[in-house]
Amino acid sequence: MIKFSTMGIDFRCSFLALIGYLLLFGLLCSLGVWQLGRGEQKTILLAQQQDAANAEALDLTRQTEIDKDVLRYRPVLVSGHYDASQQILLDNQMLNGKPGYLVLTPFLPDGGQPGILVNRGWVALGASRDVLPDLSISMVAQQVRGRINRFPEPGLKLKGAEIPGETWPVRVQVLDSKLLADKLGYALADYQIELDPAQPEGYQRQWKIAVAIPPEKHRAYAVQWFGLALTLTALFIWISSRKINRG
Questions:
Q1: CA 58/CA 142 separation, integer angstroms
Q2: Is 217 helix (H, G, I), strand (E, B) or coil?
Q3: Three-state SS for 65?
Q4: Structural contact between residues 164 and 172, judged by C-beta atoms closer than 8 angstroms
Q5: Domain residues of the chain, as ranges?
Q6: Which of 5, 60, 145, 232 has the smallest C-beta neighbourhood within 10 Å, fewest atoms?
Q7: Distances from the Cα of 25 to the Cαs of 37, 60, 120, 235, 238, in angstroms?
Q8: Cβ contact 143:75 at 8 Å
Q9: Three-state DSSP class for 39?
Q10: Which pTM value belongs to this model?
Q11: Higher pLDDT among residues 29 and 112, named by residue
């Protein structure tokens, strides 16, 4: 048992209670510090992504090695032609509360490197799921402009959601470059190009720079953990002082 007095108040607590308080207090504070660190990391990441978005456009036509994480959001140019006969509809995509698809059309670069899925934007679901949107697009040689990004990731991945259907255009809920390459019959890059909003033959495009949890939310979580640590301290002091007063 630990006993001491200060400022006219007597405190009493067991060693076990004190150890439990210190362990829990340390845990809460460490979680708060961790969240602050994560917030700082996200701030740096967003700055890096913004720098990439503001960089000069990179010509992918002759590029053979692309690191999608290093070049994420980097503006790019690529010359070649679309494969309009084999297109992909990414299902269950919401925009402004409305259901629809993201339209991804394979683009074959002139340099002979693997095909690239060009995300042409969002199109609304029709009156019936049996009625597909008009996906017509020119197959003439051209240069497209956009930005590199990872494939969209669903919040919940269902079993078999990445398996493409039998007929074109195929509908999937998860993009798997290897399965789609097998379906297409040629190699496919493991990233997408989000078509620049100024480019023709696209749909609604509202590309953003974002992270799953923004820095502000990490800092808010940190405040909550530190607040819990203070609350725990106040309760520990109140309970320890009341024990002697009741005696």
A1: 16
A2: helix
A3: coil
A4: yes
A5: 2-48+214-246, 74-195
A6: 5
A7: 18, 53, 51, 12, 15
A8: no
A9: helix
A10: 0.72
A11: 29
